Amino acid sequence: MYRFMAELDTAARSPSRVGVPEILHPHHNTIQLGMVEPLSRSTLRFHCLRQSPQYLLTYPDYLLEPQSSQYHLITGPVPGPPDSSQYSSVSAPWFTNEPIPSIMMLADLRAPLASICVPQPVDHQQLQEGLIEFTSHITQPVVGNVGGDGEVVLGYLCEQGPVFPTQTSAQRNDVTLSQLPQHHQATCSPCEPRDMQPQAPPARTAGPLCELKSRKPCRCSRSQCLKLYCECFANGMMCSNCDCSNCHNNAEHEVKRHEAVQLCLGRNPAAFRSKMAGAMSQRSKGRRNKGCNCKRSGCLKNYCECYEANIMCSISCKCVGCRNYDGGSDVGLREKTNDVISIRPVSVITPAAVQAVCGCLLAKAEEAELELQCGAHAEHMVLEEFGQCVARIVNAMFKHGSTC
DNA sequence: GAGTTTGAAACT
DNA sequence: CAGTTTCAAACTC
Questions:
Q1: Does residue A37 surpass a pLDDT of 80?
Q2: A253 CA, B3 C1': separation in Å?
Q3: What's the N-to-C CA distance of chain A in angstroms?
C-alpha cells in the first residue's frame, strides 16, 4: 500500500510520469489499461479506459495519508473536477491490516460492507438482510488494498467477476503519459481493448500477488482445481487457459466452486489471504502470516514458499536447516531488491542463530548438571552463557550494520 | 517428457 | 495435535 501510495504521491508531484495500473479480469484474463491522472497534490482520478465515465474512481486525500484505512468504498458519481461536493468516499476498515482475499464473493463482502459507513440511501440494515439487498443497492466499485503492497482490488458488482486485482508498481513497468495515445491522456471515453495494451508487458517478479501467479497455468488433475493444491484456486482466481483436467474452478461450476471456497474458509479463514501478505503490509515489522516448514531444501529452492516469495525466513518459520537468511548462503540466494532487503525481519537473529543459542544454553545446563552444581549456580551459569550469546549477537549486528 | 523430490494441504 | 496420505509444483536426468 505504501509503495502504491508513494507512487501516487510521486505522480501528483510529477504529472508527466505516472504509473499505469492494469486491471486483470479474473475470469477472462483480459487486461485493461487504466490511467492515473493527477488532479492535484492529493487527489487522483482513475480512468478505467474500457469502462464508461461513471466508473471513474477518485482517490481523495485520505488515501494518501498513511494513517488512513487501507480499504475504501468509493461512492459517486465522480465525473468532473475533484470538487469535494461531487464525491464522497468512506474509509472502510474491513479487516485491520488484512488483505481482501480476491476469491471473496459478493456474499463474503456483505458482512464487512455492513460494518462500514455506507452512503445513502443504503443503510446497514438493508445490507444485513442479504445479498439481494446488497447487490441491488451497492453499485459503486469497492476498492481495497490487497497484500498491503499496493495491489488494489476493484470490486464492481455488475461485472461477472466481483474482483479486479490490479498490478502493483512492483509488477508493472511505469508508462509515462506521453507514451499513451493522445486520446487516453485527454479523455476517459471507452476504448477498444487493443488500445489498452501496455507499452511494455509487466515483468514477472516473485511475490504474493495472485494475478501474476495465476498467469501460469495450473496442471491439476485430481483436485478439480477446487482445493488449495491448485494455485489458481488458492490465489482466488478461476482457471483460464490452464492445463488442468476436470476443472471445476470456473464460472460454469460456480456453485460447487463457492462451496469449495466456503469449505476452505471454514477450515481456515485466512486460507485465501496471501501467506506473504504480512511481510508486505508489515514490512517494517518483518513478519508474515505463516512461515514455511521446509526440511530438506534448506529454504533455498522454490519448494520453499518464503524463497519463492523472495523473502527471508523468519521466526514464524518451522524450517529445518534453513539457509534462507541474511548470510545463510551466498550460493542460491537470490539477488534481493532493496524493498525485500528492507523487510528482512531480523538480520542477525535468524532461526539458525536462535537454534544455536538454545544449543549453547542447553549445553551449559548439562555442564552444570554434570558438575552437580546447585540450582542457583546452574541458573547463573546458564544466564551468563545467555549474556555471552547476546553479546555475540550484538557484535554481529554492528559488524554487519544490521538492526533487529 | 518421464520420473523423482519436495512441502503444503488434506485427511485420519 | 501429530502422523499419514494426497497433491501438484519444482526439480533432475
A1: no
A2: 33
A3: 23
